[in-house]
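Pasting as-is:
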Amino acid sequence: MHHIEVDPGKNRLLIRIWGSAGVEDVRRAEANLTAALTKLRPGFDCISNISEMKPAAPEVAEEVTRVQAMVIKAGLGRAVRVVGSKLAAMQYARTAGSAGSKAPEVATESEAHALLDRAPAEPR
């Protein structure tokens, strides 16, 4: 399951992923992300809350890598990851790294927002 929020004022994307995901779940998330990205400017921030996500099957991880690359290509500036399960966090970090993204990890969404708010993105 997933939920996506956009804050155009802060130029910020929030993605919450929980439970187990299949390939079709990732494709639905991709469609929702594509729509959300039209509301953001290049250099946008992204918070990925995977604190309740379960590790994914290899074929799902491949789809996640592809979607992460799409987000990067759309103009991702800074990213922060909210983690829970160490195994899911390691897997997500690996797929993000394969897509070309690195992100600090925090324990809560509040911490992620505070981290991004403390150090505003540099203008592009």
